[in-house]
Amino acid sequence: MKAQALFAAMSLTLSACATQPNPDPASFASRTSNNSFEMFGGAVSPPETLLLPVQHDQQIDGAACGAHALASVVNYWRGPATVAGNDIFLAHPPADTKAGYSMAELQALAQSQNLVSSAVRLPAGGLKAELEAGRPVLVPVQVPSIYVQTWQLPGANVPVLGFPANFITSRAAWLSEKTGSNLLNHYVLVSGYDGDTFIVMEPIMGLRTISAERLARYREAFGNAAIVFSAPD
Fold first, then answer.
1. How far apart are CA 202 and CA 59, in angstroms?
2. Does residue 74 fall inside a structural domain?
3. Which of 38, 74, 155, 179 has a CA-to-CA distance to 165 between 20 and 30 Å?
4. Residue 57's pLDDT band (boundaries 50, 70, 90)?
5. Within a domain: residue 8?
6. Domains: count for the chain
C-alpha cells in the first residue's frame, strides 16, 4: 500500500500542466483560493476584502520578475497597458541577469516611467496602511522555487481531487524552507488584504493569497524592505 501511494505521488511529479493565473480582481473574486501559497485557508471573502485594481503582467523569463511587477505598478498608476514587462526587460535588463533586478534599479526604472518611489521598511501593519491609502507595495521575497514555477501539478486547484497535488507542493515548499535549498529571490506586489491574509500580485501566477505569517517569513531575508510608489501631482 505504501509503495502504491509513493508511486502515485511520484507519478504526479512527472507531468505538469500550464499555470492558470488569476490576472485581475474579477477573475480572482470567483476563485480566491486558487494558486494560494496556503494549503488550507487560502480563500478570502471578496465583499470584505480590500483589493486594489492591479492587473497581472505575466513573467516568462526567470530574471524578469522585477520588470513585470513594475509593469503592474505602472499600469495601476498610469492606466492599463501603459507598459509591458517584456518591453522593460528587453530595453533595460538587470545588471546581474542571474540575480535579477535590485531595488535601486527598479526605482530608477519607475522614475523613467514618471512615478515617484520610496524605499522603506514596512512590517505588516505598514503594508495595510499603504493599501488603505490606495498604494500597492512592491516587496522582495525569498520563496521556495516550487511556488513560482511556470507549471502546475495535475489537479492543482481542483476541490478535493486536487489535494494530492497541493500536498506535494506544500511538502516540497516546507522542505525547501527547512533545508534552505531551492529558494529563489522574487518580487511580489502586495495588492490587498483580508484580516491576516494578504493578496499579492505575483508575476507568474497573478493574484494569490498568502498568510501574513508566511509573507513575513519570506520577507525576513530582506529585512521587511519595500518600495512604495505614487504618481506625481
1. 9
2. yes
3. 179
4. very high
5. no
6. 1
